[in-house]
Amino acid sequence: MSHIDEESAALVESMRVPRVWKNGQIPISRLPDEILLMIFKHFEEERRLNGYDSDDDFESDAVDDAPACLVVTHVCRRWRKVALECPTLWRFISSTSLYWLDVMLERSQQAPLVVTYTTFAISLKGCLEKILLHLPHIKYLELRALSYHVGRVMDLLSSQPAPMLETFKFSVYGQLPSTVSISDTIFQGQAPSLRYLEVDYCNPRWSSSIFSGLRTLYVAKTSLPDLLSALQCTDTLEQLTLRYDFLQTGQSILIDGVPLPRLKKIVLDGTSLETAVSLLGRLALPVNVKIALQLSSIEGHRTFADLFSVMNMHPGGSGPVFRSLRAIKLKPWRFAVQFSSLTEINSNYSWNPQDDDIQLSIQFYYEDSNEFQPNGPPAGFSRDIVFDMCKIIAQRSGLTFFSGKFESIYVEGGPDFIGGLTAALRIEGSSRGTYPSLRVLKLLGISFEGDELQNLRDVLTMRAKHEVPVHDLRLRLCRNFTADQMQLFQQVVMNKIDCDQSTLDHGSIAAILYPS
To answer: Which residues contact 35 (CB under 8 A, 6 or more apart)?
Structure first.
């Protein structure tokens, strides 16, 4: 029997050798290890980011939460060897399986870990406690926790320093007790590489230099005193994002004029105008900072005049000069206004723009109907808010954070803006008007109604007589603007009227995109 076994083994080996030789002649088998490893990394990243089902790849080893890169180790011996000898291929930790967590930690060796646990169902006594034992080797850490787990999570985060940590995201579901906060004890006060911090419903209370190297701070549901206290320690901050209104704590606000000399962008998302004024009034902002505001409400005691007044610049130099305005009615009661230092805004609209030339972006909601506000402002008030902003900026004196010298105005959406626009452009007496530098007027998706065209033409005629004419008038997808109207407007526009055929054809396309 032993003799037969030996012959069988020899036969199997004799068949394997040619097969190995044949596989070795395949082009992919001749790739250098470093090229093969690059392919593995791209493969792992695509599967990890897009999601995958391990059952689709192999049967015998199909296990929930298996590593995204595991499948390449089941192709051949060489692929397995190359994958296992690369620790960085195994450093992306998100598994809730203790077995696979141990495998990943063993194979990643001392590589900086990227840890992402975004499910609230994670077991504290299982994966989370085990992974946080490796806190000194974590580069990226994203956690979500139930409110009643936060105390234990903070204990774990405070158990060791985090010298490699660059990004930390921590969100909490549920109401936090007032005694829980991010304090100086987190990471034992040692996180020298931390550059990005995102906390949701977890008051950032600290006074030491632990977060002094931050470049980006994202905070949701915090209090104004806590935020100001934090900002005092972050003079390297480049981007600040605040979501939602401040929590009311009854704390006294003793901090004012917090300097943020390196700040490039501040974003307030879903806050009220009251909150925006309260925060911006206590910051000393650099002159070229970009400001993006998405306001949930502009009701209350504060106005946009108050908002512009509290934007005090950081000492040294003057702020940008706004040369163009874009005003959009996005839908009923929702408006957007952007100000740029360029003569025209050519980028697509975004309330939180990436365009470096858009310095100030404001999106807000306002209900104009007296049905909802019996004692509220008269109908048509909201359409004038946009141009009131421009008037405040253009006529402001004594405040130098920014100024207005508008050369281009772009108006989009519905008939609401035309009344406000003509009122803003009107010249009275011997004055040269609010916008003496205006050269270009662009209208998109406007449905002219009643006497609006006549009023607009009268205003442009008046401006021409006062030697502040509009040079270019551009219309796209507008309605009720005919070829005859175009000829009349050509008499009061200095250079040209640029009008698309859809507008001259009574806006058949505009009727679909911008119904009145």
So the answer is: none
The Cα-based distances of 442 to 140, 342, 421 in angstroms read 46, 15, 11
Q: What is the 3-state secondary structure (H, E, C) of 158-170?
A: CCCCCCCCCEEEE
Phi first, then psi: what are they for 58, rounded to 5°?
Answer: -155, 150
Between β-strands 321-331 and 358-365, what pairing exists: parallel, antiparallel or unpaired? unpaired
Beta bridge partners of 475: 443, 499
Which amino acid is located at 16 in the chain? R
Strands 196-200 and 167-173: parallel
Tens of each residue's pLDDT in the chain, 516 residues: 555 566 665 555 555 555 554 555 566 667 788 888 898 888 888 888 876 544 444 443 445 578 888 888 888 888 889 889 999 999 998 888 888 889 999 999 989 999 998 776 555 567 888 888 999 999 999 988 877 778 888 888 888 999 999 999 988 877 665 555 666 678 888 899 999 999 886 666 665 667 789 999 999 888 888 888 888 888 899 999 999 988 877 777 777 788 999 999 999 999 999 999 999 989 988 888 899 999 988 887 888 888 888 875 555 556 788 899 999 888 777 889 999 989 988 888 888 887 778 999 999 887 655 444 444 444 445 556 777 787 777 766 555 677 778 899 999 986 667 888 888 888 766 566 678 889 999 999 888 888 888 999 999 999 888 888 999 999 988 888 888 888 888 888 888 888 888 888 754 443 444 444
SS (H, E, C) 382-436: HHHHHHHHHHHHHHCCCCCCCEEEEEEEEEECCCHHHHHHHHHHCCCCCCCCCCC
Distance separating alpha carbons of residues 215 and 134, to the nearest angstrom: 25
Tokens representing 236 are: 């390297």
Contact present, 173 and 191 (Cβ < 8 Å): no
| C-alpha count within 13 angstroms, C-beta hemisphere, residue 274 | 9
Q: Which residues of 395-407 are buried (b: 16+ CB within 10 A; e: fewer)?
A: ebeebebbbbbbb
Has this prediction a pTM greater than 0.85?
Answer: no
In 3D space, the residue among 127, 129, 195, 184 whose CA is nearest the CA of residue 161 turns out to be 184
Contacts of 175 (CB under 8 A, 6+ apart): 147
Q: Are the beta carbons of 409 and 435 closer than 8 angstroms?
A: yes
* Burial of residue 86, with CB atoms counted within 10 A of its CB: 0-12 exposed, 13-18 middle, 19 or more buried: buried
Among residues 354, 340, 356, 474, the alpha carbon closest in space to that of 407 is found at: 340
Residues 122 and 126: their CA atoms lie apart, in Å, by: 8
Residue 150 exposed, middle or buried by CB count within 10 Å (0-12, 13-18, 19+): buried
